[in-house]
Amino acid sequence: MAKAILRVLIFASAVITSLGVASAADSYPNRLIRLIVPFPAGGLNDNVARVIQPSLQEELGQTIIIENRSGASGIVGTDTVAKSARDGYTLLVVASSHTVSPATNAKLPYDTERDFVPISLVVRDPLLFVVSNTVPANTLSDFIALAKSQPAKINYATPGPASQSHLVTELFSQRAGIKMLEVPYRGGGPAMLALISGEVQFAVLSTQLSAPHLQSGRVRAIASGGRTRDPHFPNLPTLNESGFPEMEALQWVGILAPAGTPNDIVTRLNAALRRILIKPDIVSKLAAQGMTAATSSPDEFKAMISAEIREWKDVAQKAGISLQ
Question: Same domain, yes or no, for 86 and 152?
Answer without folding.
Answer: no
